[in-house]
Amino acid sequence: MTLRTRLTEKLGITHPILLAPMGSISGGRLAGAVSEAGGLGLIGGGYGEQAWLEREFAAAGNRRVGCGFITWSLAKRPHLLDAVLARRPAALMLSFGDPRPFAKPIQAAEVVLICQVQSRDHALHALEAGAEIIVAQGTEAGGHGGSRATLPLVPAVVDLVARHAPKAMVVAAGGIADGRGLAAALALGAEGVLVGTRFYASAESLGHDSAKARIVAASGEDTVRTSIFDAARGYAWPDGITGRALRNDFTARWHGRERELAGAIDGEMARYQAAAGRGDVATAVVFAGEGADLIDDAPQAGEIIRRLVSEAERALAVAASRVV
Amino acid sequence: MTLRTRLTEKLGITHPILLAPMGSISGGRLAGAVSEAGGLGLIGGGYGEQAWLEREFAAAGNRRVGCGFITWSLAKRPHLLDAVLARRPAALMLSFGDPRPFAKPIQAAEVVLICQVQSRDHALHALEAGAEIIVAQGTEAGGHGGSRATLPLVPAVVDLVARHAPKAMVVAAGGIADGRGLAAALALGAEGVLVGTRFYASAESLGHDSAKARIVAASGEDTVRTSIFDAARGYAWPDGITGRALRNDFTARWHGRERELAGAIDGEMARYQAAAGRGDVATAVVFAGEGADLIDDAPQAGEIIRRLVSEAERALAVAASRVV
C-alpha cells in the first residue's frame, strides 16, 4: 500500500515523504536510502562546501536524489548552484532568503523548484519565484525555522496557494516524526511531508552517534529555539530565524543572554569549535524538533519510511471510521 | 452526519467539539449555543467573579454546559468551585496550575474533570489528579498557553495517556479553526478538539465587535505570545505561560521591553484600563490564536459547528482516498 498524492505524481515517487536537507546530516547515503525506499532524499547543501557536495552526490550512487540550499548562504557562493544542477538533481530546495534570484537557472535546467517558507508572505515570494512545491514549515521543526506552528500554518498556505497558483502544492514540515503526523498533514490539505529529525536518528545519517542517542532519549520539551549556536559558529542568520536544538550546557549558559555572549564571543567560539570537533554534545549543537517525543530508536531510513506509511494509513482509517 | 469518538460518548454530545472557556468571552449565551448545536459549551470562569458566573450560567438557560477555571486563580477563591458545582455543570475544566487540590470535590460531585496541559509533565499531574479528559494545548492557541506546538504535542500526550491511564482521553487545542484542523486532530489520535478563537468571532461571544473585526481581518502572523497584557492588568501568571494576542500599539511599544514596562507600570496600568474600558483595541488586548488566518467572518456558533463537522468529514474522506 502507499499514499498517492499530487506530490508523488509530480516527483515520480512512491510515498509522499521528503527527507529534509539537513546540513552535515543528510548526506548521500541517507538521501539515497530515502529515495530507494520510495520517498525523495534531499542532500543537505548547508552553508555550501563544494567538495562535500561532490562527495555526497557520489555517495548517493545512481539513486535519484535532490539537494537543498540555505538561500542567503547560496547567494554568497552562487557557483554551487551550477555545480549541483549539473548533477541533474530530482529537485532543488531553497530555504531562508529570497528565492527569486535563483529560480531562472533552476527552471532552465528543468529541475523542480521547492521553496520552504515560514509564513504566508514567504509563500507569496516563493510563488512569485515560480516554486512548484511550497514546504510550509512550522516552528516545532528542528534546526532553522520561524515562529508559526505547523497545524494552523499549513491550511493557511494551502488556501493561499490554491488562490494564487493552483498548480503548485504544499508539503508540511515541522513536528512530523511518525505516521500520525503524516496523516494529519494530509488532512490539513498538504500533499506530503518533509521530515528531518526522524531521519537524523537513522542508521544512514551523518550525525554523531552521541547526537542520535540524545535525540532518541529526548522529549520535545528538551528543545529550544535559539540563536546562540549560530553566534558561536559565526553565522549571521536573518531576523526571525532561529535554530531549534536540544538544550545542553551551552544553552543553559547562554540562551537568553545573547548580549553577554556577543561580548564573550571570541573565547566562546574557540571553546565551541573544540567541543564540536570532539563530538561533545554537552556544548555542540544537536538540532532537533519537538517530534523528538515520538523517536525511540535509530533504525535504517527504509524502515522509517515503511513505518511512516503504515502508521499513516492506520491513522487515516481510524479517523475516517469516526464519521457516522 | 457526525463524528463519533470516545469524547462524544463520554460527554453525551453529538460532535467532538468543546468551546474553550475564554474568560469574559465565553458567556452563557455562547456556551449554550455550542451545546445546542451538538458540542459542549464551557463558560469561561476566568479570574473568577461570582456575580458574573451566576449571570452567565443563567444566560445558558436550560442548556447543558460546563465551566472552566484558571487553576492558580481558583486557588485564591476556592468557594467559586462549590458555587459552580452546585449548578451541576456537564464538565469542569482546570487550566494553568496544579489541579490536584480541586480534583476530589469535582469527582465527589460526579462531574467530569477536564485538565488542560501544555507539556507531558503537566499531563502526568493531570492524570494523577484523576482527569478523565486531557486537553493538550499547543502554543499556537490564542490566550494563555505554553511553548509546545499542537501537532507534535498531541500524539506525545496520546501515547503517555495510553500508557498511564488508558480510560482517559486526549482532546487537541491550539490552532484549530476549521474542519481541517479537527480532521488533523483525529488523525493525531485525539478524541476531539477544544476551539477558542474561532468562537470568539461568533455572534454570541461576549467580545467587543471591534475585537471580532480585528480577528476576522488578522493573520496568524499578526499574533504574538507576550506577558505584557498580564503585567498591565496586574495578573501574576506562572513562569512559562504567556498570552497569545493580536499585535497592536501596546505590543509595538512594550513587547520585548518587559523590564521597562515594569518600571512604568503605574501609569501604564491606568492608561491600559481606560483604553480597555472604551473597547480601544489599539491598546487593549485581543487574545487570538494563529488560526486567525482561517477566520473570515463572525457567524452564529451553530453555523461554526456545522462547518467544522462538514469540513472535517470532507478532509478525512479526501485524505483517506490517498491510500491506494
Give the helices and strands, then pairings.
2 copies of one chain form a homodimer.
Chain A: H1 6-11, E1 17-19, H2 28-36, E2 42-44, H3 50-59, E3 66-70, H4 71-74, H5 79-85, E4 91-95, H6 100-108, E5 112-117, H7 120-128, E6 133-137, E7 143-145, H8 150-164, E8 169-173, H9 179-187, E9 193-195, H10 197-200, H11 209-217, E10 223-226, H12 228-233, E11 242-246, H13 249-254, H14 258-263, H15 265-277, H16 301-320
Parallel strand pairs in A: 1-9, 2-3, 3-4, 4-5, 5-6, 6-8, 8-9
Antiparallel strand pairs in A: 7-11, 10-11
Tally of structural domains of chain A: 2
State the CATH topology of the largest domain in chain A.
TIM Barrel
Question: Count of helical segments of chain A?
Answer: 16
Order of helices and strands of chain A: HEHEHEHHEHEHEEHEHEHHEHEHHHH
Labels describing this entry:
alpha/beta, 16 helices, TIM Barrel, 3-stranded antiparallel sheet, homodimer, 8-stranded parallel sheet, 324 residues
